[in-house]
Amino acid sequence: MGCDGGTIPKRHELVKGPKKVEKVDKNAELAAKWKYCALSQEKLKRPIVACELGRLYNKDAIIEYLLDKSAERPNTEVVAHIRSIKDVKELNLTDNPAWEGERHNIKGDCYEDMHCAMFICPVVGLEMNGKHKFLYLQTCGCVFSERALKEVKTEICHKCGDPFHEDDLVMLNGSKEEVEKLQKAMEERRLKAKTAKKSKKSKDTKVSKSLDSTGSCDTSETKSLPLNGEGSSGSCSDSAPGPSTSGECSKTLKAPAGPIAGSKRSIQEMKDKSETYKSIFTSHSSAKRTKDQMSNWVTHTPYHF
Q1: Which residues form the signal peptide (predicted)?
Q2: Comparing C-alpha atoms, which of 160, 131, 159, 162 is closest to residue 146?
Q3: Closest CA to 244 of 207, 216, 211
Q4: C-alpha angle with apex 178: 41 to 125, nearest 5 degrees?
């Protein structure tokens, strides 16, 4: 039953001790974060978007997730905070001229540098491979290294020139502590937006109610105005039998002389006009020809022979 042939087993072969903790390769971990989508685990390709926690995604994967959230996916916890496409920002990345792409090593017989990244910082030139910290702006989506923002301190974007504040900076693929800070800031921002939206709705309802109350007073005043051009002045209580908000309306309106714009002219008003004014139109009796003035051979149809 074993141990034959002069073999001498050692203690570590017979006694099973505690398992060693498996160490994750740092290079593989960095490549998984910076070269692959956090949701679909596919290689990053443009358009690339980032959430408020600094994770990188393919835009196609985010759209598919938002269209069908019930589908089974391996990493749904990563995108649980994304409610709509407005919660992500499309990144404005700078290509790395040293990156040759996947076509260079199709057969697999060439050396492929794992540290070579697809994108770089447009100011300093550092590669976005995880060894250096990178941030993006929520206003414009431009991506820079932390070193560039420390060396060149400005309140304007280096790439597009849009102004920004410190609150607009989001760390890409940060540590656990940085992700927790970003999550707190995201929750505070959403609470502020929610309260502002509620206050705006309450203001709109108040304004609409006030407009309705004033509109009823104005309509009652316009109904009391005569159409024959005579001026009149009165209160809302005289013209409208219903109750008003303030009892009596302090404003008095005077009817303009002549007909109100947009109102139809009455027949009596047209009869009061002079005959000279009426004779301008072809419908007047003076413009019509009599039977003596009209000749027999003249016709209105050109096809008569």
Answers
A1: none
A2: 131
A3: 216
A4: 70
CATH number at residue 31: 3.30.40
Q: Quick check: 272 pLDDT over 70? A: no
- The answer to the question of residue 268 being in a domain is no
Instruction: Record the tokens describing residue 158, joined without a space.
Output: 């280096």
Name which residue leads in pLDDT, 211 or 235: 211
The verdict on residue 71 lying in a domain is yes
Task: Give domain status of residue 197, yes or no.
Answer: no
Tell me whether residue 160 is in a domain: yes
Q: For 90-118, b where at least 16 C-beta lie within 10 A, e where not — what string?
A: ebbbbebeeeeeeeeeeeeeeeeeeeebb
Sign of CA dihedral 96, 100, 103, 107: negative
- Give the neighbor-by-neighbor strand order of the sheet with 134-137: 143-145, 134-137, 169-171
Question: Going by C-beta distance under 8 Å and a sequence separation of 6 or more, which residues neighbour residue 130?
Answer: 30, 31, 33, 34, 173
**What confidence tens digit (pLDDT) does each residue in 31-50 have?**
889 999 999 999 999 999 99
> Residue 261, CB half-sphere, CA atoms under 13 Å: how many?
0
Predicted TM-score (pTM) of the model is: 0.59
Question: What are 212-267's pLDDT values in tens digits?
Answer: 777 655 555 554 444 444 444 444 444 444 444 444 444 444 545 555 544 455 55
Range of the domain at 115: 26-102+111-174
For 43, the token pair is: 């290689």
pLDDT digits (tens, 9 = 90+) for 137-166: 999 999 999 999 888 888 899 888 889 988
